[in-house]
Amino acid sequence: MTAHDAAGRRPAEGGSPGIVTGRQARPVVVASANGNQFRNGGPLTCVEQAFALLAGGADPLDAVIAGVNIVELDPGDSSVGYGGLPNADGVVQLDASCMHGPRRRAAGVVALEGVRTPSLVARALLERTNHRMLAGAGAQAFARAIGFPIEDDLNSPRSRGLWLEWKRRMAAIETADPIARMEAGYRVGQQMLVEGLIDVNHYYGTINCSAVNARGEICGVTTTSGLAWKIPGRVGDSPVLGAGLYVDGEVGAAGSTGHGESNLYALSSFLIVEEMRRGAHPKDAGLEALRRVRANTVDPALLDAQGRPAFNVKYYIVNARGEHAGVAMYGGPQVNYAVCTGHGAETRPCEALFDEELTLTAAP
Ligand code: GLY
């Protein structure tokens, strides 16, 4: 009978190039910038909470999920959990996924309503079943069955108010054609961004957080309310393994915020981890994914006047040694990522494919 290693693999299942085994790493937590911003009235940000747990010996997945729970519960972040911007019907529908590198386990929930912390439901799916993804009513029934309280409405006064303003503007759109209304809804949302009613970081929103502990064990989580005013049922990249999150326990982790449809097409997080497996530094692996997204963006509705993507997308990346990077399609003072090490938490600028800020224009 073949012996298995501590992770339950047969020896022949490991051994990809670039793998670091029996390693030590600099413990680090890496997240999107909102991971070092929101505290939900408590003392710690997401990355501080996650690092404190990591330093105390917690499992890295427990650490990052406790971190993102702060942001999911904080209505100040209108792109994640409670108070996330709702779909076109005014309903908050949440997506989340998580991956445990050493244990080779992963799960996601999509279009989940009524639970403030979808990351915890994804975590329960990972721990307690062999399923990888649950959707909509099924995900909610699973959450209810294992004891999560189900709320009627996850809107905060602010998210409800912004949706009512979007609805007011949509009332002036005369077409009944569903596709034309969808396109008009996107334009109306863009106009609200241009007017500063919605923070550009909260239109697609999301938080991603990954951690590496001193033994080089890697875990990650991504959680979001998705695109504001989305078609009900729309699923973004965040819950899709390989798109909005990917962890390989021997190589590293990548996750994303921003334009989810681009990551669904490119499977960007998987691409980044595979680049790192081939030896790329996290920054170079992330820039390669951005170049891929740029090359794939050919729809005129998604291009600016210079033929470049008319949206931002960002990646947060860490390898098994604890080296990390944040990269983005467009740069500027608002385009950052969060890091916490034994020296404390900081917010750092992302490396950008295009150094200038994304120019917001209302689509014609
Ligand atoms: N990146 C989040 C979303 O597109 O849903």
Please explain how this structure is put together:
There is one protein chain. The strands form two sheets. An eight-stranded mixed sheet has the order 4-3-2-6-5-1-11-12, with helices on one face. A five-stranded mixed sheet has the order 7-8-9-10-13, covered by helices on one side. Helix 2 packs antiparallel against helix 3 (118-128) and helix 8 (268-277) crosses helix 9 (282-296). The termini are far apart. 30% of the residues lie in helices and 21% in strands. With 364 residues, the chain is of the alpha+beta class. The protein has a single domain, classed as 4-Layer Sandwich (Glutamine Phosphoribosylpyrophosphate, subunit 1, domain 1).
Keywords:
five-stranded mixed sheet; 364 residues; alpha+beta; globular; binds glycine; single chain; Glutamine Phosphoribosylpyrophosphate, subunit 1, domain 1; disordered N terminus
